[in-house]
Amino acid sequence: MAATTEGTEDHTAAPASRRRPARRRGTGRIAAAVSVFGELLITAGLVLGLFVVYSLWWTNVIADRAADKQADKVRDIWAHQDEDSGRPAVYDAKNGIGFLHVPAMSSSEILVEKGTTSKILNDGVAGYYTDPVKATLPTADKKGNFSLAAHRDGHGAKFHNIHKLEKGDPIVFETKDKWYVYKVYAVLPETSKYNVKVLSGVPKESGKTKAGHYITLTTCTPVYTSRYRYVVWGELERVEKVDEERTPPVELRG
Amino acid sequence: MYGWIWRHLPGNAWVKALLSLLLVMAVVYVLFNYVFPWAEPLLPFNDVTVDNQ
Questions:
Q1: In chain A, what are the domain boundaries?
Q2: Do B31 and A54 touch (CB under 8 A)?
Q3: Which residue of chain B is at minimal alpha-carbon distance from A228?
Q4: What is the reported pTM?
Q5: From the CA of B14, how many Å to the nearest CA of chain A?
Q6: How much is the ipTM here?
């Protein structure tokens, strides 16, 4: 038995090694082309995989770092303004105008800056609209719509959990001197990205017909794509003055 | 392609492995810092605003 198996092994091994160089000469070019093509496909797959890692992880790292830095700067400016005389707070658009606290959506504060270009939003902040419909800032003390946008995924993903917001949930906007407490009253889970009416001073789609102090959060939906927009509306319930300890309003405690 | 690169790297297997690792890291660096930030706005994954365009 042993002898015969050895014999057959020898028999098959010898011609195979003799045949190999011949085959390489004949189909060498095609084989090389196919293997390069295959390697390119593998490379493309790896690059796409890396792009997912980049979008969902790395942009968050970068954005959170940028947002933390800018938030520290705003807090620092606020603290120093208190020291210098009784000068009123200056809202420098470049630095951010305040912080958004939405306990139902995220446990951390979201810095709010001017503008909704990707350059601004990619720093892991929420931006208020300047175009196509200009937002009315709550600090302006007039009726209007405080419209904001932020990323759903990547770049800090500040509005990732926007779908967890329900009617009655608080949205608190913090400035240097005041807490603006809004309550969610309407949600539009899916709308066209061209629907700029949601930003109007009186957002009719939310059911309001009279001017008031509104807040509008917009982001993309469904998650990981931006086919539609998700919109949440809130209305100002009350304004609290910030005390010396910056005690947060009841909605943010607990 | 990868075989060709491997054959053209200098040194023994360990040196080649180290050089390959450095090459991979350089490629990932370039992708994360230049290629992906450039490609991202061109892809429809992360537009969050409503607008007229």
A1: 59-252
A2: yes
A3: B48
A4: 0.81
A5: 23
A6: 0.89
